[in-house]
């Protein structure tokens, strides 16, 4: 897990959450649930990856409830990837081959 990258995406997610003034109640609850882990990530206090399904907001993301908030959705995805350990070398190979970079 790259703590510097996690900090960067945590700051981005915090900013995206603060920009959204009219979040539906279910996403407001996600915001409240994410706040402590976002702050820990910003302070670089997260020591171990977190299972991606244990990260607050997973259900809302999987159900498409963030689609109306594209900046928030993108920031959440980046945070979730980094918090769960980052992109593995295997996944990076798959992504590169999909983009024709192999």
Describe the structure.
The chain is mainly α. The chain has one domain. Helix content is 63%, strand content 0%. The protein contains five helices and no strands. Helix 1 (3-19) runs antiparallel to helix 4. The longest helix has 18 residues, at 25-42. It is globular. 21% of the residues are buried. The mean pLDDT is 87.
Q: Output mean pLDDT.
A: 87
> How many DSSP helices?
5
Ranges with pLDDT <50 over ≥5 residues? none
- Count of the separate structural domains: 1
What's the N-to-C terminus distance?
Answer: 24 Å
The gyration radius over C-alpha positions equals: 14 Å
| Main sheet summary | none
Helix-strand sequence: HHHHH
Structural class: mainly alpha
**Helical residue percent band:** 55-70%
Residues in β-strands, percent: under 5%
Summarize the structure.
By secondary structure, the protein is an all-alpha fold. The chain is 63% helix and 0% strand. The protein is built from 5 helices and no strands.
List its salient traits:
single chain; 102 residues; mainly alpha; 5 helices; 0% strand
Topology:
Elements: H1 3-19, H2 25-42, H3 58-62, H4 70-83, H5 89-98
Helix pairs in contact: 1-2, 1-4
